């Protein structure tokens, strides 16, 4: 929903942003430091909890309901029987793995009406945080300050292993130790990982993925992006391998779900595992992203997505095989486009340079500062200049175009096998690699379509040859020129017709050979020859320089950030995201995406019906949902004849926050985070409080779909529902705006 309104012009460049200060709602904060750094600010915004309620090692707290789901997403526990809520796109791979053309759970959805119907998912994990600890002294205490970076890293890793071993001895816990502030500090997360995670429910794609890739990264949004799993444990409530005798896990805490709803200005908190941000990059690095790396990756993925889309539309089996792959490729592709636009709109390079000028002025005030920081920015300029001379482009094309071909990616393991045999590894080592490859092959070919991959092969490798400077070309490109006159389609026909790696049967036959015969077969295989050429070329021409410069830049970033923290003593610095548990906080708030337009903070089921288009896959609406809409049969989840669907807030999030709970001022679940707005995707590099918004599914829509649409009310009965409306902030911190006109409909192309 949006409408037009007149807004006063706001100066984009503020003194605080030029100096790099954390602006309102910016930051991904460490839970163990909330009392020290954030509690007062959070309570001023309306939070009625204490830092101890959020993170505690002495009592149950909100952290005990948060899990890292599958290693790349977040999930939250919403019942005392281990029921876990995350995004539909986070559980997509598991939903796909249980799908077939005959039993298409992606299209039809799935609901376990009793425990025996819940589906196990080998390899899926859910990890809780037991406690956090600052281990900087243990990791860095015995390491000299001026040690060469490679030697320093060896000492760091040795100390990490020592601390991990001491911490986990005699327990079933694991310990993860990560660098923060580019290695200026180290924190340890003690974890408990459960491995029996079962699929409980998922809406059909027409709800869980409504809007599809068309609406991805966009607002207004109308997606019921959720799936339900359950954590199972052994008889002692501890992690156990899958067994039909396991019992639902009893959590230390589960999140109550609020039916009271939201209002603009309400306090919000996102608790989860954000993946990666780089907020403290120098201007040269931002320039590399905007002018070299993002454009190259977008170009490659645009071509790949076009091929996948065409083949998926032509064949239902291919659609199921490539659904998760397409979503993964498309997600970053669209994000990078928005990131480039956002950084340009913020004039990020200029703003970074202005900060660097202030830093230089501060450095030059004292001789000691000059000795420590005087060469940092100059060295950045030199290093990124070298990277821009083909290194970055070569690396991106190897990763995205070379390894973007499934056959090439798959062949890497066989190149390793050939190398082991050739270098006379022990028979046990060779057989272990053979077993790994044999075990992986069925899963690969289950979701593999040779004609599709062959088209991708020809298109992407041709781009690789055309766009990368010849000095970085692998030898195989010369052979294609000589033997196939640079006809990549003809070369693809030859490779796929003669390789032993393009079918499960041939792979199984290959792996059954004795090592001598196997080596001869691999050496003659064109897919192995191609992959070896690509990998060896990358390792010889690109990787050494990239690694050296990247290591130097890591050290420079560490020193630069140390200087910024020394210069700005009143600033609260937050560390970049690194897939560790974080808290971000903000408020429900709309935003101005462009001149003359304003987006409201919520959407409803009415917007789904406005977007409906039976001829477009992304906008098909299930008949049952339309029936509920027409009858206004929303149960206790609707409000004044409307069914809330999604909302936006100013929380600072990134990848990995998918599935994170959005929690209100009282610690109740009000939504599940699933995306960011396109105008705000640059927030991984530079946060803009006026435009950065996280997008969340309203918890009431989730309950409505489970109860009224799916008829799975038994799941809702497990949950703790809170109906009392929270006490609102007397004066919520939000923008003052003129009275709103009636919302205009969004035209969807």
Largest sheet: 11 strands, antiparallel
- Strands, total number: 22
> Could you estimate the helical fraction of the residues in percent?
40-55%
- Return the average pLDDT rounded to an integer: 92
Strand content: 5-15%
- Report the radius of gyration as a whole number of Å: 27 Å
User: Helix count, per DSSP?
Assistant: 27
User: Which blocks of ≥5 consecutive residues have pLDDT under 50?
Assistant: 1-22, 728-749
- How many angstroms does the end-to-end distance come to? 16 Å
| Structural class determined from secondary elements | alpha+beta
Global morphology: globular
Protein traits:
749 residues, 11-stranded antiparallel β-sheet, 27 helices, 46% helix, 14% strand
Structural notes for this entry:
The longest helix is centred in the last third of the chain and has 42 residues, at 526-567. The two termini are 16 Å apart. By secondary structure, the chain is α+β, with helices and mostly antiparallel strands. It is built from 27 helices and 22 strands. The relative contact order is 0.18. Helix 11 (283-314) packs antiparallel against helix 13, helix 16 runs antiparallel to helix 17 and helix 17 runs antiparallel to helix 21 (504-511). The model is unreliable at 1-22 and 728-749 (pLDDT under 50). Strands 2, 3, 4, 5, 6, 7, 8, 9, 10, 11 and 12 form an eleven-stranded antiparallel beta sheet that branches.
Summarize the helices and strands and which ones pair or pack.
Elements: E1 2-3, H1 15-18, H2 34-37, H3 39-44, H4 51-54, E2 66-69, E3 73-77, E4 83-86, H5 92-97, H6 105-108, E5 110-111, E6 119-120, E7 126-134, H7 136-140, H8 149-168, E8 174-180, E9 185-194, E10 196-202, H9 205-208, H10 212-215, E11 227-233, E12 247-248, E13 257-258, E14 267-272, H11 283-314, H12 316-345, H13 348-363, H14 367-373, H15 376-402, H16 406-422, H17 427-446, H18 450-467, H19 476-484, H20 488-498, H21 504-511, H22 515-524, H23 526-567, E15 582-587, E16 598-599, E17 602-604, H24 605-611, H25 623-631, E18 644-649, E19 661-663, E20 669-676, E21 694-698, H26 699-709, H27 713-718, E22 721-722
């Amino acid at each position: 929903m949006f409408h037009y309104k007149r807004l006063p012009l706001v100066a984009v460049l503020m003194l605080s942003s030029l100096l790099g200060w954390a602006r309102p709602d910016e930051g991904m904060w460490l839970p163990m430091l909330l009392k020290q750094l954030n509690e007062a600010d959070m309570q001023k915004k309306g939070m009625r909890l204490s830092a101890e309620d959020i993170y505690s090692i002495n009592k149950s707290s909100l952290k005990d309901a948060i899990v890292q789901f599958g290693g790349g997403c977040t999930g939250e526990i919403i019942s005392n029987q281990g029921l876990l809520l995350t995004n539909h796109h986070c559980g997509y791979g598991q939903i796909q793995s249980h799908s077939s053309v005959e039993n298409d759970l992606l299209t039809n959805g799935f609901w376990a009406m009793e425990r025996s119907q819940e589906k196990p998912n080998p390899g899926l994990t859910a990890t809780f945080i037991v406690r956090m600890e600052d281990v900087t002294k243990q990791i860095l205490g015995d390491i000299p300050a001026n040690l060469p970076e490679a030697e320093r890293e060896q000492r760091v890793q040795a100390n990490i292993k020592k601390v991990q071993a001491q911490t986990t001895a005699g327990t079933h816990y694991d310990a993860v130790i990560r660098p923060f502030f580019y290695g200026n500090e180290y924190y340890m997360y003690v974890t408990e990982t459960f491995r029996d995670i079962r699929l409980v429910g998922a809406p059909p794609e027409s709800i869980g993925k409504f809007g599809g890739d068309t609406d991805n990264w966009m607002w207004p949004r109308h997606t019921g992006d959720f799936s339900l799993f359950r954590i199972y444990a052994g008889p002692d409530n501890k992690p156990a391998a899958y067994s039909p005798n396991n019992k639902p896990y009893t959590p230390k805490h589960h999140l109550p779900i609020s039916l009271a709803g939201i209002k603009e200005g309400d306090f919000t908190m996102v608790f989860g595992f954000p993946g990666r941000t780089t907020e403290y990059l120098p201007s040269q690095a931002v320039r590399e992203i905007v002018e070299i790396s993002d454009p190259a990756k977008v170009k490659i993925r645009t071509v790949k997505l076009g091929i996948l889309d065409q083949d998926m539309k032509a064949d239902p089996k291919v659609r199921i095989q490539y659904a998760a792959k397409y979503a993964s490729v498309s997600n970053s592709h669209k994000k990078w486009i928005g990131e480039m636009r956002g950084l340009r709109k913020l004039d990020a390079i200029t703003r970074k340079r202005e900060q660097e000028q202030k830093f230089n002025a501060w450095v030059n005030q004292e001789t000691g500062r000059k000795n420590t920081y005087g060469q940092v920015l100059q060295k950045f300029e030199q290093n990124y200049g070298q990277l821009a001379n083909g290194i970055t482009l070569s690396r991106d094309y190897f990763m995205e175009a070379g390894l973007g071909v499934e056959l090439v990616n798959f062949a890497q393991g066989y190149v390793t096998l050939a190398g082991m045999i050739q270098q006379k590894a022990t028979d046990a080592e060779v057989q272990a690699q053979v077993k790994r490859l044999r075990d992986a092959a069925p899963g690969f070919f289950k979701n593999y379509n040779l004609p599709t991959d062959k088209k991708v092969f020809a298109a992407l490798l041709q781009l690789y040859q055309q766009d990368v400077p010849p000095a970085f070309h692998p030898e195989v490109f010369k052979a294609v020129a000589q033997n196939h006159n640079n006809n990549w389609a003809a070369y693809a026909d030859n490779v796929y017709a003669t390789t032993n790696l393009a079918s499960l049967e041939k792979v199984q036959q290959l792996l059954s050979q004795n090592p001598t015969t196997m080596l001869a077969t691999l050496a003659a295989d064109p897919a192995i020859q191609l992959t070896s050429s690509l990998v060896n070329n990358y390792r010889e021409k690109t990787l050494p320089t990239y690694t050296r410069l990247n290591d130097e830049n890591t050290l420079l970033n560490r020193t630069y950030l140390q200087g910024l923290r020394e210069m700005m003593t009143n600033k609260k610095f937050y560390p970049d995201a690194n897939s560790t548990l974080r808290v971000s906080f903000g408020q429900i708030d709309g935003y101005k995406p462009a001149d003359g337009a304003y987006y409201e903070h919520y959407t409803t089921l009415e917007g789904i019906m406005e977007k409906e288009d039976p001829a477009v896959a992304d906008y098909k609406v299930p008949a049952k949902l339309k029936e509920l809409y027409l009858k206004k049969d929303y149960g206790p989840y609707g409000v004044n004849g409307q069914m809330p669907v999604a909302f936006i807030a100013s929380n600072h999030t990134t990848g990995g926050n998918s599935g994170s709970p959005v929690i209100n001022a009282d610690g109740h679940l009000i939504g599940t985070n699933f995306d960011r707005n396109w105008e705000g995707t640059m927030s991984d590099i530079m946060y803009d409080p006026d435009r950065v918004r996280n997008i969340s599914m309203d918890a009431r829509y989730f309950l409505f779909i489970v109860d009224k649409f799916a008829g799975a009310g038994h799941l809702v009965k497990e949950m703790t529902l809170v109906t009392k409306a929270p006490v609102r902030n007397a004066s919520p911190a939000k923008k003052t705006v003129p009275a709103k006109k009636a919302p205009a409909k969004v035209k969807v192309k």
